[in-house]
Amino acid sequence: ILDPSAPLPVTIAQASPPANSATERKNDDHSFATIVMAQRDRLRARCDAMEAERDSFNCELQVQVSTTESLKVDNTKLYEKVRYLQNYNNKNGPGSNLKISGLNSRHQSNTLVDRDLDLEALEQRYEASVDPFRQFNRSEKQRKLKEMSPMERTVFVVAKTVLGSKEMRTALFFYVLGMHLLVFTTTYHWSHGCSSTYPTFKNHPEHLADFHGGAPESESGA
């Protein structure tokens, strides 16, 4: 016979909900961690792809720059050949069969030469390459640079690098300004510390003697 006043026994149905909630919470945490890890892996793969794309763009840019430089050299050589043929045509007279359309002078380039070809720039580059004064100036600069001592050459290269661009000049200005402020601040604090210590030595001479390692023997004997 059961006692009516006795408490009811705990059933399995009442004990199972906490275990189920803990399991569900654990499963939710695991699913969140899986989602975050998947997003991290996708982001890492995307970053790797972007880095590879950047490297390919840099390589392509270097190739294009080298190609542009080689094309400039080729255009200068072609213009040199054109100038040679032009002089040869002028020497042979007006009856020559050689025809160089649009390359007779700079004034005729607007009507007879291809618009994609900048004859003025080509002519300037060609004149700079064959100008004896510029070549002599360049050779003299190289000779003077070789005659410098290593220290002078280092100073020249550093000065040319620093003063050659606006950004470097600005950085040098702020660097010098910062160094001056640092020296000024350090000197101010040092002088203020010395001025605050001087009254102590003046009122208590024994501290000054201790500061200098003690009084001399002659004075102590006296």
TrEMBL record:
Gene Ontology cellular-component terms for this entry are:
Golgi membrane
One Pfam family from the record: CASP_C
User: Which keywords does this Swiss-Prot/TrEMBL entry list?
Assistant: Coiled coil
Keyword flag Glycoprotein: no
Residue segments, region Disordered: 1-28
Segments forming domain CASP C-terminal:
19-192
Tell me, which GO biological process terms does this entry list?
intra-Golgi vesicle-mediated transport
Task: Write out the biased-composition intervals (Polar residues).
Answer: 13-22
List the protein's name.
CASP C-terminal domain-containing protein
Q: Source species, please?
A: Eucampia antarctica
Q: What is the lineage of its organism?
A: Eukaryota, Sar, Stramenopiles, Ochrophyta, Bacillariophyta
